[in-house]
Amino acid sequence: MKRILFLIIILFNIRLDAFAVKYSFFPLSTEIQIWKILPLIQNIPKGSYITVGSERGFRAASQSDNIDSLILVDIVPEILRFNYINIELLKARNKEQYKHLRWNSTFSEWKKVSKYLTYQDFEWWYNNVRDLEKSRYPLPELLNKYGEWKYLSKFKKIKDNLFEFYKSINSHKAITNKRLNQFIENSSYAQLLKIAKKYKLNLQISAEEWEWWEKFGKNREMYCSNLWLDNPNQVVELGKLINYKTGNYLFDDKNYNRLHKLALNNKIKTFSINLRNNKDLDNLISFIKKSNLIISVLDVNNLSHKDYVGEERLNYLVRRLSNYGKNNSVVITMMNYKNFGCAEFQSYVGFTFDNVKEWNDFKLQTFFESIPTDWAELINGKLYSKGEMPAEFINYPE
């Protein structure tokens, strides 16, 4: 019955509008430092964590004992399916068993944990979570599983060898009208061998390495390769540089056990909700009222951006939903401020419910866009309470 209800939600509520068609979606969140919200949730009341998205919601809700339920809303089928499957897998008795089910187990092992998951779910999970070589953006899960970007050293070795080969060719004036990236992306292995033979150069790239390079290294569809081809100075092993473990239930038994308890008690729900649609918003509020939920955290991520719901719509959402929390409940917002090493970095800013009720003409996205780039990290973890309004920034010409 549970499975049937989930499918009904998917079939009848999803609206694949221009937003859903235009953008790519990652079931595994690009936010790999969600622990930055910790200062914002230290004094929240006991209640429900409501958020958009997938993995980011699980990580965020795992960080507080005051979260007694988790509501994940989205309009994207892949996001909803990840949520549904993950809820079932979180019924695993401990973190280690969960990680085995997430990465390595057979379907028969899944069935021992959940009677609702199907073999089609297992195949989908394999293709979209486990098979990292097919993923357009595997970095978050590579860090989760291996602690490193598994293919970075191979990428760097081939790219460096190609660069040296390119310099050698230029010294012979064999090519004069191609930039390095053009040369790397347009050349075939046969052409490179021919040039090496003609000018008696040593091409230190094997046929096997070139096959991998064709498939992954110079594939512009691969998120990281695309960035690294244009920014070789960003070929950095982020696992050795940033804190990606804090706030991640894959590395913390206490965080995992919080989610495990919620999953066992049927306190994690995922719904197809288009937050730009008033009927869908009414349905969400109806569920909140019927379930007697107190909103502890309303995590609106970066919905204020015009590509999502926009700041006018976000203010409307916040005004309506803030009626179902307490004064010290918190709205969490996020802004992307930096791209580096194939990762996005975010700042998280919070507003108590008694603060957002005073917003009036305040526009969140306008505020975010006014923050000078060099200052964006400074505001991270700032919580605005009643009577406090954000600073005003003036963008002077550079």
Specify the number of helices: 18
Approximately how much helix is present in the residues?
Answer: 40-55%
Structural class from helices and strands?
Answer: alpha/beta
Average of pLDDT = 88
- Terminal CA distance: 61 Å
Outline the biggest β-sheet: 7 strands, mixed
- Percent in strands: 5-15%
Q: What is the element string, with H for helices and E for strands?
A: HHEHEHHHHHHHHHHHEHEHEEHHE
- How many strand elements? 7
Radius of gyration: 24 Å
Tell me, briefly, the overall form.
Answer: globular
Low-confidence runs? 4-23
Describe the strand arrangement of the main beta sheet, using strand numbers: 3-2-1-4-5-6-7
Structural descriptors:
398 residues; 18 helices; globular; 7-stranded mixed beta sheet; single chain; alpha/beta
Task: Lay out the secondary structure.
Layout: H1 2-13, H2 18-22, E1 47-52, H3 55-61, E2 67-74, H4 77-89, H5 95-103, H6 107-113, H7 119-130, H8 139-146, H9 152-171, H10 180-186, H11 189-199, H12 207-217, H13 223-230, H14 253-264, E3 268-272, H15 278-290, E4 295-301, H16 311-321, E5 325-340, E6 343-352, H17 353-356, H18 364-370, E7 382-384
Parallel strand pairs: 1-2, 1-4, 2-3, 4-5, 6-7
Antiparallel strand pairs: 5-6
Helix pairs in contact: 9-12
Describe the structure.
There is one protein chain. This protein is 44% helix and 14% strand. Helix 9 packs across helix 12. Helix 3 (55-61) links the parallel strand 1 (47-52) and strand 2 (67-74). The protein contains 18 helices and seven strands. The chain has a seven-stranded mixed sheet with strand order 3-2-1-4-5-6-7, sandwiched between helices. It has 398 residues and is of the alpha/beta class. The protein has helices at residues 2-13, 18-22, 55-61, 77-89, 95-103, 107-113, 119-130, 139-146, 152-171, 180-186, 189-199, 207-217, 223-230, 253-264, 278-290, 311-321, 353-356, 364-370; strands spanning 47-52, 67-74, 268-272, 295-301, 325-340, 343-352, 382-384.
